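step: validate -> pass
step: tokenize input -> pass
step: predict -> running
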Amino acid sequence: MKKIAKLLTLALGVFMLASCEDVPSPYGTVTPPEEPTKVLPTGDGTKDNPYNVAGAIEKCQEIGPEVSKDKYYIKGLVVATASASADYGNATFYIHDEGSNTKFYCYQVAGPNGKKLSEGYTFKVDDEVVIYGPMYNYNGNTPETASKGAAWVVLHNGEAPGGGDTPSGEAKGTGTLEDPFNSVAATAEALKLADGAVSDKPYYIKGKVSEIAKDKNGNVQNYDYGTFGNASFYVSDDGTTTSQFYCYRVLYLGNKKWTEGAGDPLKVGDDVIVCAKLTNFKGTPETQQNEGYLYSLNGKTEGGGGGGEVTPDQPKGNGTEGNPFNVAAAVAKCAETGETPTTESYYIKGIADEDYTIGSYKNLEVNIVDKEGCAQKFKVFRVKDKDGKDLKNGWKIAKGSTIIVYGPVVNYKGNTPETATGAYLVSVNGEAPQLDDGTSGGGSGGGDTGSADITAAFGDLDCSDITSIKLSDGTTLSLAQEDGSNAPVYHASTKALRIYARNSLTINAGSKKINKVELAYDTYNGTAYKGNDEMYGEAGSDKLTPTKDDKNVTFNGVNNSTLKVVNWREAGTTGGTQLRLTGISITYVK
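step: predict -> pass
step: emit ->
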């Protein structure tokens, strides 16, 4: 009986255990966590092969805590919804690679080419984006883009935000008058600046007007004909809104205020050159307000503030004694230099814009212009004789007198091109200055004081046939290849003759005898193109060695009606240093 009871008890226990298998666990089924998907780095950061998120993170770890100088393309999926801010026009969000939890921080990114995103523009979860810009490993532990609009959203789900385009334009130019920035280069230069910082000098930006600026309500801004007299607009290479640059509150031609009278003179498609300082304003690359002006409009460099038409000279000369700056060139040099006086000195020539009488301070302070009535002026500021001697008290200088000064220049307070400390008066109407001690001052004036009988800039001559260039007095110039590998050439864009290794320049004065020849040469990007050291001159049977300074190559004691200048190079028929001539001054035997 006990055996039967034990067997029944055992059977019941087995039954109970079997029944428990159908009872759900109070804690559910425990599943071990999955390992996160590891995505390998791909891409090289170029437009055609962007980094994935893993690649961008790896690159940031390589870059370190300092913002990269280079810009990179990064592609990923948005982690969480984010919208552009109203104040700054940029957005902040994380991106990741599909299937990976590893994130990259897109911090304060703007729209294409640094342009502000529209207020409320939204990036949603899993939207695909391509970002372009500098990046770094913030504090050594957060891979991210540089802040305040330095990086851009190039593509959002395959399209540019706001209907723009990818930054396909090529940066061109160095920002000088001779080689202006295009809109892409101006944008890149401005984005190098910290938020709110302003460039230490102005730059020239060339393009077509792509858009007249609008106010916050979407209305086209009127030109300010009141207190400030400025205007705001965008420029690009082709006049479209692709890769455009913001010209903010710039003055009119001649650095003058816009004035009422002829309506709004700018329209989309106009060709302009703007001279201005740059700034990175809250992520928007633009010109610094009231620190720039419209240098040219459809080829015109002067005007009556939106009204009357005045045709001045174009910039001429290279600032040498034989080829002085005109006023337009002096103003351009000041705009390029900015508020710090130049370390170099220049000859500047113009006509007095007003009558002036030397007063008790015994110096000259007068505005000069290229032509009477021109709005563009250069200020001759308190200059004396070259030795610092006082000018004659009561000496009258009439309006229209030709004035030549020499010295450093400066754009005083960013709006007044003028001579700087150390400049002096060279001549008035070709005569040396009258001094207070009853004598005449010294100095020469680029051919206007009798130092040279003829002076010419090649930009003013017909150089279509460089085998026969004629000066106004009948003297001819002839360039020849000789046994050089390259033939000499005239470059219209720089207004200079280029004489290569073993080329020659022959000066034929006819019945006149040449005493001295001064050849003004060009300097570009720190290279003085003053010819090879072996250069020589042939005057009859005499072989002459020139002297060279920082402006001219000079042959003295020619004493012949012809001078043949040979840019000789002993090492061969190519290479060496070119002789790039911008002007010539000749003194004849009396």
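step: describe -> The chain has four domains: 53-163, 183-297, 327-428, 454-588.
step: cleanup -> pass
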